[in-house]
Write a structure and sequence with these properties.
Elements (H helix, E strand, L loop, with lengths): L1 E3 L14 E4 L2 E4 L2 E2 L11 H17 L8 E8 L5 H11 L8 E6 L10 E8 L9
Parallel strand pairs: 5-6
Antiparallel strand pairs: 1-2, 2-3, 3-7, 4-7, 5-7
Helix pairs in contact: 1-2
């Protein structure tokens, strides 16, 4: 297994990696709307954009991009945040021929009250094709 912790995003809050790669699979930890400078924007839209850009950076550590994502799991703190989150997600995958599977759940909150959304991803690295015999 290989840890994936990009230098251009906020450090993890504790003893974990932002992502882990192993066996052709990449799992990201849940990404919050925390900018690299430690600020947290006020809107779900801005926070979701940071979440997805963090995921993009984590995948890039292993040479992957959004086309390798199998599934997003997302969490918002209120029903009224769902539409704004979904607009950001849909924009991030708009160019993909195959859209990732997606789950969206409403939760009571996160570690800090200003966090409104958290997103995690599961990706699959392309397998090397063997040459025909």
């Amino acid at each position: 297994m290989k840890p994936l912790t990009p230098k251009n995003i906020a450090s993890p809050f504790g003893g974990y990696s932002h992502g882990v790669s192993g066996g052709g699979v990449v799992l990201t930890s849940g990404q919050l709307g925390l900018a690299a400078d430690g600020t947290v924007p006020a809107t779900v839209t801005e926070q979701a954009e940071i979440c997805f850009e963090n995921i993009r950076a984590i995948l890039a550590c292993d040479g992957l991009d959004f086309s390798h994502i199998l599934r997003f799991s997302a969490y918002v703190t209120a029903r009224e945040h769902m539409a704004d989150y979904m607009k950001v997600r849909d924009a991030m995958v708009s160019e993909l021929a195959v859209k990732p599977a997606s789950t969206l759940m409403i939760v009571s909150g996160f570690t800090r009250a200003e966090f409104l959304v958290e997103v995690e991803a599961t990706a699959l690295a392309p397998t090397a094709r063997s040459s025909p015999k």
